[in-house]
Amino acid sequence: MADGIVLEKVELRLGTRDFRFDCALPAGAVTAVTGPSGSGKSTLLNLVAGFETPDRGRVVIAGDDATDKHPSERPVSLIFQDNNLFTHLDLFTNVGLGISPSLKLSAEDWKAISEALVRVGLGGFDKRMPGTLSGGERQRAAFARTLVRRKPVLLMDEPFAALDPGLRLSMANLLLDLHRETRNTVLIVTHDPDEVGRLAEHAVFIDHGRILLQAPAKEFLGRRDIPAIADFLSG
Fold first, then answer.
1. What SS3 state is found at 8?
2. Is residue 81 pLDDT above 70, yes or no?
3. What GO MF terms are annotated (predicted)?
4. Across-strand partners of 214?
């Protein structure tokens, strides 16, 4: 577990809300982060990403204490629901920002960007602007950017929530294909029990800022002894 993600007795207060996370998440696996709306799922991701700093405790990523590290210093890529694409920049440039924010790109970088676009099904889309793309194509572009960044941890906050069912399935399959190649550590926030079963090897359930259960996904999906989890799974 030393190569995974550890939140060691982490405590955080945001306004009047308290969060306490103590967990060890496996390396090289897809972990689903689930729970009711407002329970603290995004807060957990923000602590790993470095957008929030704990009041107490430690955040350890791949065996390295990242508690006080700036987000840019952490071995992490992120995909959110809105894809974070710059609307005034073409697709090639948007992906290139994943390698260098100043866009100082080598010939090898140019090749890597083109290969990443092809890999996610966007070959020939280099000069397309985000506004001309479908939701699924924008999500594919976000995947391409994570590929060129080559970071060992990928954080995803409900990345497929705005997509129709067919696109959700397509993007889920793409995530699994890329994960088989990279074997990175993935945390994905989801409200969908089917998505947990389809994507995850491990699951974490959060309620009122606490982790009620962390378990292999198959075990999690079979639990009905905790009322909040039973409600989630039946919903």
1. strand
2. no
3. ATP binding; ATP hydrolysis activity
4. 204
Dist. CA 30–CA 141, nearest whole Å = 20
pLDDT tens digits, one per residue of 148-206: 888 899 999 988 877 788 878 888 888 898 888 888 999 999 988 989 999 999 999 99
Query: CB 94: neighbour CB atoms within 10 A?
Result: 24
Q: How far apart are CA 177 and CA 200, in angstroms?
A: 13
Residue 110: both structure tokens together = 């140019």
Alpha helix locations (H) across 15-164?
41-49, 91-96, 107-119, 135-149
Q: Where exactly are the structural domains of the chain?
A: 27-52+66-75+151-235, 86-150
Q: What is the pLDDT of residues 8-37, one digit of tens each?
A: 999 999 999 999 999 999 999 999 999 998
| pLDDT score at 82 | 65
Dist CA 39 CA 208 (whole Å): 5
Distances (CA, A) of 46 to 54, 87, 157, 231: 10, 24, 10, 26
